[in-house]
Fold this protein.
Amino acid sequence: MAKKIFQDKKKLFIGKMNLELKKRIIKCLVWSVALCAAEMWTLTQADSDRIETLEMWIWRRMEKISWMDKVTNEDVLKKVNESKNMLNVIRQRKRKWIGHVLPHDEFLQEIFEGRMKGRPTRRRKRIQLLDDLADWKDYASLKREAEDRSMWKIRQ
């Protein structure tokens, strides 16, 4: 859907406009569609790769760089004066959403912590919402921060 939005507004993004203005419009129009409800996604490595690929596709199209041209992703990012941000945006949104929901909803807290009653499945363990957050911030400290609302509001 994000690619379709980009294609619909292609003349606007490829035209002679200030680079910073193009980037702001792309982040407003295209990224908002691409990252709709991203705070509730459980990201696998394949999903992360697809998100990074979409981001690079957008920057390449904006700068009219074909995939046939031998231009590396780092060169494209330098040309548009950006870094890979989509995954960081998803993590920030997820962190804010969890901090917003944790103090208020005990049912969701039980789901996050995996304390649901019932017989465990015989298959492999499913990917949980918090599994992709474990590499940058552990859940316990996130929970402590969310419980202290005055500090949470200051940090957000």
